[in-house]
Amino acid sequence: MHYDLIVIGMGLSGLMAAKTTAEAGQKVLIIGKGMGSLALFSNTIDVLGILPKSIKMKDGLSQWIKDHPEHPYGKVGLEKIEESLSSFNSIFPPPYTFQSRNETNSLIPTGAGTFRPTYFIPSTMMRGITLKEKKTLIIGFKGYKDFYAHRLADLFKCRGVTLSLHENPSTEMTATALARWMEQPSFREFIGTEIKKQIRDEELIGLPAVLGVNDPMGARKDLEKKTGVSVFEIPILPPSIPGMRIFNRFKERLISKGVTFLLGYSVSKATLKGKKCERIEVLHPPVIASYSADRYILATGRFIGGGLKANDEKIFEPIFNLPLFQPESREGWFRNSFFSDSPHPIHQAGILTNSSFQPIDGTGDLILENLWVAGTILAHHHSMDEKSREGIEISTGYTAAKYALAG
Question: Which residues pair with 136 in a beta bridge?
Answer without folding.
Answer: 204
